[in-house]
Amino acid sequence: MSMPFPRASGKAVLSVILGLLCLGPPGLLLGYWGLRDINESDGRIKGRGLAIAGMILGGLGTLLCLAGVPAVWIVGLREKANRASCQNNLRVIGLAVNLYHGDKGPFPPGTIANGALPPGERLSWYVSILPYLDQDPDPAKHRTTSEEALYEHIDRKLAWDAGPNRQLAETPIRWLVCPSQVLPRPGLTSYVGLAGVGRKAARLPVSDPDAGFFGYDRRITRADVTRGLSETMMATETTVDNGPWAEGGPATVRGLGPEQTPFVGPGRQLGGLHPGGLNVLFVDGGISFYSESIDPDVFKAMVKIHGD
Asked: Residue 224 in 3-state DSSP?
């Protein structure tokens, strides 16, 4: 009687396929079971090489899978650290703005006053708060910082990019850059002041219902923020059209375009630096993280200084 023609082990074949698909653990197990069946078949089943190859591929896939777990964990930890650092940056900015208010009376306007220049050529509100960045609220603990020294060298009568200001505007300021963002050149900022609702919101008077915290020329006090200091947004992060921190105009102060919803997320008006949402600085210095799915009407309301 002739012997039946040996058939290939289906488990061995499947283990190779799974191994090639980087499905390590099941490929490894099927390769092992296939090899065991082949050894116990007395030659009736072939495919020893395939089973061994499947086990090797499955083993490599399993090792890569195990190596990927800590890699994913490390990436997650890094993002948490970046988000916390970004929140601290906004906290430093918020404290500086409030220290300015305590020292000068009103909050800083969106641009340093200069009737001879349009807003986009003026120096920004960031220049105004340079002496207050990273300062202790206690005046007795005031210290000279690199930002304060930079402020002393800026000619506040000139445009942001005129004369010595051009080179000074390229100075990187760590508080103004989110660690999750790699900017194309030094001197840019990740954060923009919020002007209210509408593309021309920065030009609105304080009394306008769509006015926000920053306007090119408007000066507001805490009393003007009738919505509430802890409910009104001052600034947030963006990946769109990031400009120099020293530049006035849309580079550092923007109105919310109400027609472009959703407002938050990659490629949107705001956010895009942290998965799932963005950090927001409020007038009282508080920081909150908001989801990309936040209701546009709720977001618009918090951008305004006046309650509905």
From this structure: helix
Give the separation between CA 109 and CA 36, rounded to whole angstroms. 78
Residue 21 CA to residue 16 CA, distance in Å, equals 9
Considering only CA atoms, which of 127, 87, 125 is closest in space to residue 252?
A: 125
CA torsion through residues 247, 253, 258, 261, sign: positive
pTM, full prediction:
0.77
Q: What is the DSSP letter of 3?
A: P
Distances from the Cα of 236 to the Cαs of 26, 32, 132, 188, 306, in angstroms?
Answer: 47, 56, 19, 15, 19
Question: pLDDT of 116-163, one tens digit each?
Answer: 999 999 999 999 999 999 998 888 888 899 999 999 999 999 999 999
Burial 148-179 (b: 16+ CB within 10 A, else e): bebbeebeeebbbbeeebeebbebebebbbbb
Rounded Cα–Cα distance for residues 138 and 16 (Å): 69
